[in-house]
Amino acid sequence: ETGVTQSPTHLIKTRGQQVTLRCSSQSGHNTVSWYQQALGQGPQFIFQYYREEENGRGNFPPRFSGLQFPNYSSELNVNALELDDSALYLCASSLGRSPLRGTEAFFGQGTRLTVV
Amino acid sequence: QQQVKQSPQSLIVQKGGISIINCAYENTAFDYFPWYQQFPGKGPALLIAIRPDVSEKKEGRFTISFNKSAKQFSLHIMDSQPGDSATYFCAASGLSGGGADGLTFGKGTHLIIQP
């Protein structure tokens, strides 16, 4: 049991719509990262939030945006959905500004997004 | 641009055998190399991780071997069991321009342990 929970577990959206995915980080963790995992591929880093501010971003367009709240939970928002956005979206929480430097990152079970 | 190359794509090993998965990286700024295990419908779970100041790290049946000069690292699973059947990902992390560490993952290895 990692303690990182994501909602919803599955979601179907139509191309052009907007979607919001949610993540509750493990107790005590102040850093949240989001990843996109296409079928049969490894996760790809979208961005990271530390103490409510984005402090790192992968190669994703601006229509991917996020928020982190004072309780360190987080949202991932995707606007103008495209068919290629269909994937498993993973949230990982950890402790520290550089969360993956020597500290374990705990992943949630993911949200499976299907865009039709 | 794939910065972490993982092989093989799939692997079948007999129960009790040794499973070996290899990864190579390009970015010399990487300084943290974890391995993750993922079961269907689940998120990745950290198995073991290594830093480049050591050449080998062992935890139970899992061992990482690291070759800094060759920019390669590998996962060895000793006495492989059917419960080890899963997809395994190598990953790497280092300081980016913004200072935040995102993990760069390989494409994964689908491991099947035959009874």
Highlighted features:
heterodimer; A: 116 residues; mainly beta; 7-stranded mixed sheet; 0% helix; 49% strand; B: 115 residues; 5-stranded antiparallel sheet
What does this structure look like?
- The complex is a heterodimer of chains A (116) and B (115).
- In chain A, a hairpin with a 6-residue loop joins strand 4 and strand 5.
- Chain A is mainly β and 116 residues long.
- In chain A, the strands form two sheets. In chain A, strands 2, 4, 5, 6, 9, 10 and 11 form a seven-stranded mixed beta sheet that branches.
- Chain A has no helices and eleven strands.
- Chain A is 0% helix and 49% strand.
- Chain B is mainly β.
- Chain B is built from no helices and eleven strands.
- Chain B has strands spanning 4-7, 10-14, 19-25, 30-38, 45-50, 56-59, 62-67, 72-77, 86-94, 104-105, 109-114.
- In chain B, a hairpin with a 6-residue loop joins strand 4 (30-38) and strand 5.
- The mean pLDDT of chain B is 91.
- Chain A binds chain B through residues 2, 4, 33, 35, 40-45, 47-48, 50, 55-58, 90, 92, 97-102, 104-110, and chain B through 4, 6, 31-32, 34, 36, 41-46, 51, 89, 91, 93, 95-96, 98-108.
